[in-house]
Fold this protein.
Amino acid sequence: MAHKHEDKHHLWISDIKRRRGENISNVAVANKNARIADQERKLSGGSMRAVLLFKRGGSSCRAKQ
């Protein structure tokens, strides 16, 4: 059965999981996602809450104050 996801990100996850195992790959993916979110926050000039709401498809991209 072919893999459902064959984009660059999923191929990287599959490769690291094969090389390092399940637990290490989970930590690596979490760290990579955190770095991506932090970079997007820095580029947007907004808060982390705004980035997370936008990524989840929230109705508002502005952080509550």
